[in-house]
Design a protein that fits this description.
Oligomer: single chain
Number of helices: 2
Shape: globular
Structural class: mainly beta
Strand order of the largest sheet: 4-3-2-1-10-9-8-7-6-5
Number of strands: 10
Strand content: over 45%
Order of helices and strands: EHHEEEEEEEEE
Length: 134
């Protein structure tokens, strides 16, 4: 049975995020602002349907998908690209593969106790963020 991701999560740490944004070719001004933010995540998880809202004072990003079904993801507001995205369960981890201009792009979410972990990947660069359930 997949992990229950439901809840509201507050960021408690972020490592190597600026390097990740550089790998996505995000402009320097946006990188500086984004690196200062501590976004929250609100996740609604009902069966194979998951909505992940990333919420900050600068920009919000909503991802609404069904596990196992490929879809076109519009990343305007992130790095202004589109990619074909597939998200699947690998054991207790929710794994995203984003096919497009950036090689090896994707992310993985998993829960450890009351913490939500997020590993972000792009062009060989890895960033790790941790969120605490509130």
């Amino acid at each position: 049975m997949p992990t229950d991701l439901n809840g509201y999560w507050k960021m408690i740490s972020s490592d190597n995020f600026e390097e990740y944004m550089k790998a996505l070719d995000v402009n320097v001004a946006i990188r500086k602002i984004a690196n200062l933010l501590k976004p929250d995540k609100e996740i609604v998880h009902e069966g194979d349907h998951i909505i992940i809202k990333t919420l900050s004072t600068f920009k919000n990003y909503n991802m609404d998908f069904h596990v196992g079904k490929e879809f076109e993801e519009d990343l305007s507001g992130v790095d202004d690209r589109k990619c074909m995205t597939t998200i699947t369960w690998e054991g207790d981890k929710l794994v995203c593969v984003q096919k497009g201009e950036i090689e090896g792009r994707g992310w993985t979410h998993w829960v450890d106790g009351d913490e939500l972990h997020l590993e972000l990947r792009a062009a060989g660069v890895v960033s790790h963020q941790v969120f605490k359930k509130t």
